[in-house]
Design goal:
The complex is a heterodimer of chains A (268) and B (198). Chain A contains 10 helices and no strands. Chain A is mostly helical and 268 residues long. Chain B has one domain: 3-Layer(aba) Sandwich (Rossmann fold), CATH 3.40.50. Chain B is 35% helix and 26% strand. In chain B, the strands form 2 sheets. In chain B, strands 6-7-8-3-9 form a 5-stranded parallel beta sheet, with helices on both faces. A 4-stranded antiparallel beta sheet of chain B has the order 2-1-4-5, with helices on one face. The chains are: A mainly alpha (268), B alpha/beta (198). Chain B: InterPro entries: AAA+_ATPase, ABC_transporter-like_ATP-bd, ABC_transporter-like_CS, Metal_Ion_Import_ABC, P-loop_NTPase.
Chain lengths: 268, 198
């Protein structure tokens, strides 16, 4: 195996000079996103630097409780971000989204780390944290798209919902239509990504592993596994989030509590 | 069969109705009459438990309308909404969404025939149909479930006189149906047994 070439901090900053090209483009086309871009890059640098420091310690320590706590924090941040991005009320949605995050991560980690990779120690920081992070990071985006589609459709098509509620009186069956559309909206981008992976895109994790010294074959096997884990995790997370949310978004007459969706982000 | 006692409803500052009481007996066809925007649709929605009155009570078949009885009560209703521009693609999808079984579909097809909906129209995409065609198709689908109470919100709004005649001919054939409708259409109002003024 070849030795890994480290990147010096100076070289990293030198690499950042390439940002001049898009910034000149933004100025030329009068696109007002320079400030947001610089803030996002600075945030990324600070966040990743902190993560690097934390992970150095966490990897060295490799204590199950600390690793679980780390994943718990990731789930918590993901839950808060989802609620905020969609524009929902923390009071009603924190429990369903937290539970869906936990359930999907629990199943994914036990199955993939325990039964597929056969780790003796399932909470090994080297596997447990990055795989959970990959699943949660992707689930966040797909959950936001799927849940926004679900809540938006319920409001937009409430005439259809009530028409069916009165005329067929089977709420669960009526909701399958709305849930189906939401799942499609949430997962379609992921399905599209999987279908072209390797052809027009080389995934970051695989690239990172190869750069880190792994053989391409091992990197691809891990990439396949992680894509499956992401897809299963995202699907479970979205479906459980919707099913648990349904307990809070209807009243005892099965009416939609529209006041919960007043601040919903309709951009999606 | 439908009994409303001292119903009051208010939207923000606007009073929709105050102490409104009414009775609709089994087998009657009653039309709710009031100027536009005066709460006819809201009365129907209160009866179905879609909106809650500020005061008063509703009884259906002597059952008080509340969250415990709502499933049993809604099982008695077929509802033709005022807005028939529903986001569905085809008649097949409507059949699927309304969970029509084989018997219901047989009724549905015979009602469509009586309302002069041709085989060709049935094949069209739902969004391409006229308001009157949509109204007749949705009504036929709703009543094919043979529920005892029909709540019809502006059933004549997109129908010409001939279609109204066809619809009444069909409704008169249905035995023991209690019909509560809302309408501005004089021909429709004249054909009902009784008028309730809001």
């Amino acid at each position: 195996m070849k030795e890994i070439i480290d990147i010096s901090i100076g070289n990293l900053f030198f690499g950042a000079l390439l940002l001049i090209i898009p910034i000149i483009g933004f100025i030329y086309f009068r696109v007002k996103i320079i400030k947001e871009t610089i803030i996002a890059i600075l945030r990324m640098i600070v966040q990743l630097s902190l993560v690097a420091v934390y992970l150095e310690y966490i990897f060295e320590w490799n204590n199950a409780w600390v690793n679980i706590a780390w994943v718990f924090v990731m789930i918590l941040v993901g839950t808060f971000t989802t609620i905020k991005r969609i524009g929902l009320s923390y009071r009603y949605f924190i429990v369903p989204f937290l539970l869906s995050g936990f359930t999907s991560i629990l199943i994914i980690d036990i199955f993939f780390l325990g039964f597929i990779i056969h780790l003796d120690y399932v909470f090994d920081a080297r596997y447990f944290i990055p795989i959970s992070g990959m699943v949660l990071g992707n689930a966040l985006n797909h959950n936001i798209v799927g849940l926004t589609s679900y809540f938006n459709d319920l409001i937009k098509e409430k005439d259809l919902y009530y028409f069916l509620l009165i005329n067929n009186n089977h709420k669960k069956q009526i909701l399958t239509r709305f849930i189906g559309t939401a799942i499609k909206s949430g997962l379609n981008p992921l399905i599209a990504t999987m279908s072209v992976i390797g052809l027009i895109s080389l995934p970051g994790m695989m690239t990172g592993q190869i750069l880190g010294g792994s053989s391409p074959l091992i990197a691809i096997k891990y990439q396949l596994l992680i894509m499956l884990a992401i897809f299963v995790g995202c699907s479970m997370n979205l479906m459980i989030s919707i099913l648990l949310s349904n307990r809070f978004i209807f009243d005892s007459y099965s009416r939609i509590k529209e006041d919960l969706f007043q601040k919903i982000d309709r951009k999606f | 069969m439908i009994h409303g006692v001292n119903l009051s409803l208010q939207f923000k500052e606007q009073c929709i109705c105050k102490n409104f009481s009414f009775d609709v007996r089994v087998g009657e066809s009653v039309c709710l009459s009031a100027p536009s925007g005066k709460g006819k649709t809201s009365i129907l929605k209160m009866i179905m438990g879609i909106i809650t009155p500020k005061g008063g009570e509703i009884f259906i078949n002597d059952m008080g309308l509340n969250s415990q009885n709502i499933l049993a009560i809604r099982d008695l209703f077929s509802w033709l909404p005022q807005n028939v521009n529903l986001p569905i693609n085809s008649i097949d999808e409507l059949i699927e969404l309304l969970l029509l079984d084989l018997d219901d579909i047989r009724y549905f097809n015979s009602y469509l025939e009586e309302l002069e909906i041709s085989e060709e129209v049935k094949l069209h995409n739902f969004s391409e149909l006229s308001g009157g065609e949509k109204q007749r198709i949705i009504l036929a689908a709703c009543i094919s479930k043979q529920k005892p109470i029909l709540l019809l919100d502006e059933p004549a709004s997109s129908l010409d006189d001939h279609s109204i005649d066809l619809l009444f001919k069909l409704l008169n054939k249905l035995k023991n149906k209690t019909i509560l409708s809302t309408s501005h259409n004089q021909k429709w109002i004249d054909n009902c047994d009784r008028i309730l003024t809001l």
